[in-house]
Amino acid sequence: MTKENINGILTYGCKIYLFWSVTNEDIKRYLTAERDAMKTGYSIKTWKMRLFCPEKQMIETTEALYREAVAFYYELLKEREELWAENLLTIQGHLEKLTVPGRDGREPKYIPPGGKLLVYFRRSAMNKAAMAVKTAASAESFPEKIDANITFFKGMYKDLTDTSVVLKLWNGKKWIWVPCGLTGRSFPKEAAILSPTLVHEEKWLMFHVPVKQENSDARTAKERMQEGARVCSVRFTNTDSFAVCTVLDEGSRQLAVKNCRGGNAYRHHCKALLKKVEASRAFTDKDNVSQPNRKYYMHLKHLNEYYAHQVSKEIIDFCKEKHTGILVLPEYDEDFSRISMYRSGNYSPLHLSIRIRNYLKYKAWAEGILVLELRADGTEKQCSICGATGKKQGSIFICQNGHQVNRFLNGARNLGRKCQESFRKNNKSS
Fold first, then answer.
1. What is the C-alpha to C-alpha distance for residues 405 and 410, in angstroms, rounded to an integer?
2. Tell me: the pLDDT tens digits for 263-316?
3. Domains of the chain (ranges, CATH numbers)
4. Does the predicted TM-score (pTM) go above 0.85?
């Protein structure tokens, strides 16, 4: 490229853009692109993979050494209150001065279990102990023992793919690279893989892999509202519908409705498993086990996870399909939540909404959708068609003017409009 080819140069921040026949529109376009690029964030999800290791004994030996190392650093930190408020890197530096020989000839004051530990193994144990101490200090209660699943820092694993990984394991005498198999869903493209953790789930070895993905839209709720973002509002129910969702445009007009069904099937499956628990109680209550009927309770746990993931995925897919920028969830006060959850029962569609909303928060952010929680006061007593008061009759809401609408849809509409109106008021006042 020569100077003759360049008709304009735009400098923005520390970047230089070159243009051919630069116009005002070109400048606006590139400035907008730069602005949007700066409004990015990220999300971290955990990929749960099943691990197949041919050296099970080496896994156990490595885990035992790791637990010893974590306990060792945990005890050191318990005695050093001045470090509790420091960040992990600072704590790590202090612990290394106490336990690792220095290049200047410094002798360690304390010797870790196993003597000289692998550097990344050591730092992983230090971080685990530091987080345990910080948690205990904030709770003002220090447990005698802490559970510690081994986290593999870089240098302790390599060649991680969708189907395999090579782990550095301790056989009691030396560290050895061991190839292992993996099964599970594929990692997303262009994602950053963070330090995985080895977790025991029943009889399986699981590899929990944090995956960091960029979020292309990190605009605030105010910015989105000002730009006319669509709003999806949700009403959770205790019926066959886990949730009723409605999408509103910037003028509060309804564009689409989504009914996430399956509540009756979920309730039926839970009841069937609970009956099995009761039927087997006579055979397990006297067993010398930490938790009787564990098999069935694990089935219940997996059932809860399956339905919560399924419903949250349906809602996020609906938001993406309708190009929704904001997802509004109802927020209830503590007393209402406690009473409502008690009445609905532990294994009910409404009780599962606690898990569903937790899944929604991180799944929405990963897709560039912002989740807001808004008090639902008054949203069930007002007609979403005319604004008049009314009352529910079964699954129907009837207002004073005679309008009839599904009461859950009515509540969802009002919640979305309440959210939009709150931003309109704030904009006027500012």
1. 6
2. 999 999 999 988 888 877 766 555 555 555 777 888 888 899 999 999 999 999
3. 1-30 (no CATH), 42-214 (no CATH), 221-264+296-429 (3.30.420.140)
4. no
